[in-house]
Amino acid sequence: MNVNxxxxxxxxxxxxxxxxxxxxxxxxxxxxxxxxxxGPVVGVGVVVIENGNILLIRRGRQPGRGLxxxxxxxxxxxxxxxDAARREAxxxxxxxxxxxxxxxxxxxxxxxxxxxxxxxxxxxxGGDLRAADDADEVLWVPLDDLDNYQLTPTMxxxxxxxxx
Length: 164
Known about the structure:
By secondary structure, the protein is mainly beta. It contains 2 helices and 7 strands.
């Protein structure tokens, strides 16, 4: 083979564009909802379970406005995942939470959002329970009563993981 010629494609085609993958490469990702080329946003959540109750917030913003989820939100630039989880738990619930292990990883994709989500287990170590920031309400919900709450779609995936 001449070093000035492109390598043949897998099917043996030696035409100039055969090895570029133009026909067989993966499709380009769609533009982000704001029209830019940014990638997914990283979000964290905190799963706090005590005495058979799980700590939930009713979301005050999209995605999932009005639905119930574990406290959480976006990771800010320069912030560690655990620091973001601790901050979000405090901002939304008023509780100081010690962050433990990762319990679930998933994603939420809709026409306006692409979130990569990482949920940690946590336990409260202080603070006063109150809804704040983008949480409209905060409750300790008995695990057996979750069917009575409209949860975010990713909460069902998280609960499946917790039950397995």
